[in-house]
Amino acid sequence: MTATEASRNFASVLDRAERGETIVITRGGKRLAILSPAPGATGRVVKDALLRHVSSLDDAFADDVKATRDLLALDDPWSD
């Protein structure tokens, strides 16, 4: 697909990528870019990666993680 076509039909191009298609974008007959579906990831993937390395964490890092969690803990706005 030419860059001009991609520009004019960008929403459609994104829809195609969302459905799993990889689109090669050209300009002047030369490959310019490749648009492909983003890899899926979940919080579970990150958690598993951290758990694999938990034994190698030092105390300072563990303290930083706890401090960050404490900053992110929000009060329930719906409670009395």
UniProtKB/TrEMBL annotation:
Function comment: Antitoxin component of a type II toxin-antitoxin (TA) system.
Species of origin: Streptomyces buecherae
Record InterPro entries: Antitoxin_Phd/YefM, YefM-like_sf
Domain of life: Bacteria
Protein name, entry field: Antitoxin
Gene3D superfamilies the record matches: YefM-like domain
Family stated for the protein in its record: Belongs to the phD/YefM antitoxin family.
